[in-house]
Amino acid sequence: MYSVFLAWLQDRDSTERAALKLYLSDKAPDLSAAFIHLEEMNQLGWHDHFEHLDDYGLIQFIDRDIHPVYLRLTEAVLLPFLRIAAHFSRKDRDKGTDGLDVWSVTQELKESPIEKATLSYRNTVRNGIAHGGITYLQQEIRYRDKKDNEEKITGSTMIRLVDDMFDVCHALTAAISVFILAGRPHGYNLPRQLLVDELKEETRTPWWKIVGCTPSEFSGLNQLIIYARPQTSGVCQDSCPVTFTMIYKLYSLARIS
Question: Is the pLDDT of residue 161 over 80?
């Protein structure tokens, strides 16, 4: 999926660079949030702990962990990335681009190369989780939406859907990261979280690490405050603050607009 989405971005850039730049700029907060959501879910630590659960433990695991993660991956990570392609697909067909929820996006991308990214999305399952239409049967889980549509799947299938969606979301994230980083000379701006991730890697030291950022203002201009956390005490107390101050000043000057 990585190569497919990257190829789509590159092709769209070659034909509609200005429109793609504008769209990604307008949607930068959503894309930045998608990076954060995926990073947070990567750190949950449950991925390999379900194999030895008994039946009741598996139900608890699915109800407590799997269902919320599936919903969050769908709405907060998968949707913002796939909406890019769906938006331009609508434009190509001279159709309106409003109302692109997750169902509309998956329908718009049918029979396109990017359709593969939608295969782990089950609309009835998503709606059943979102609206409380879940019933645990003897061997299966039944999901029911508000229109009484039903889908039954096993617990292992539900877990596999989440694993598959994780893989897709990582591929989409990698593709758009590579595309935007390569496109910076052409005026593409990094989403805030991607910029912070790059800064984390470029400034990695044994003594402290960058943990986050928050938007702020200075003299009426926009800036980004970078937060660092010490990883040791009593070592490098003089040089570490100086190093960070220099980096922060360069970074702040680059980001003031």
Answer: yes
One-character DSSP codes across 17-80: HHHHHHHHHHTHHHHHHHHHHHHHHHTS--TTSSTT--HHHHHHHIIIIIHHHHHHIIIIIIHH
CA atoms within 13 A on the CB side of 22: 6
Split at pLDDT 50, 70, 90, the class of 232 is: low
CA angle 48, 81, 156 (to 5 degrees): 30
**Torsion, Cα of 232, 234, 237, 239 (10° steps):** -70
Sequence spans of domains, the chain: 2-186, 203-255
Q: What dihedral angle (degrees, nearest 10) is formed by the CA atoms of 174, 10, 71, 43?
A: 10
Alpha carbons 14 and 12: distance in angstroms, whole number: 5
- Reported as type and span, the H/E element at residue 247 is helix 239-255
| Interval 163-178: pLDDT, tens | 999 999 999 999 998 9
Which uninterrupted H or E stretch holds 200?
Answer: helix 192-202
Find where tokens 């003089």 sit: 238
Quick one: which of 103, 102, 78, 97 has its CA closest to 5?
78
pLDDT (mean) for 202-230: 71
State mean pLDDT over 54-65.
86
Q: What is the pLDDT of residue 32?
A: 86
